[in-house]
Amino acid sequence: MVITYHGENYVKAAAGSLVFLVDPTDERSFRSAKFVLFTESPPPLMKGEGTENLLARREPLLIADAGEYEVEGVRIAGYRTGIRGETSHLAYRVTMENLSLVFLGHLTELPDQKTASEFADADILFVPGGGAPWLKETDAAKLVRQLEPGIIIPTLVGNRACERFVKELDAQPGAPTDKLTLKKKDVVPKAMAVTCLTA
Predict the structure, then answer these.
(1) Residues 6 or more apart from 131 whose CB is under 8 A from it?
(2) How many Cβ atoms are within 10 Å of 141's Cβ, its own excluded?
(3) Which of 27, 62, 135, 187 could staple 107 via S-S, CB 3.0–4.6 A?
């Protein structure tokens, strides 16, 4: 699997010919994707003009709600994690190639224990690591320790690197990189190894 980060909460993951996106910032990126996950509902891309055209798409599958889905053998579970104004926040657990990936999205507060338990022991955890207006770095670090993933990838870090989040976690990340390439055997369970991806 190859994972790249494109700023904000936009992540692209590819395993062979299967590609999926999380929170893309424009429609052009949809071309190669089998499905697209949005951690805000309604997604920014579905506001205003063009909403009907987006919703009418058959491919890729657009997911912006809680529930269980399956696309070409990839299992997806969506969970509601909060609401801010008129926007609902969602998180997802994606299982493919024997890897489990959890995308916490635009969290603004710690999830309840029942919801958090759905995210435990992931191989890769994508967590908002940039602080306000999203989850505070201290709370993000607390949640990560509770969930004990193999690999942690901070998102929503804005123009800042992820140093503050890493400091709160008391971790020693490797050098920032533009992509992460790995297989299941490369993941050490509960290692909580931090990888800072550059956009």
Answers:
(1) 137, 164, 165
(2) 22
(3) 135
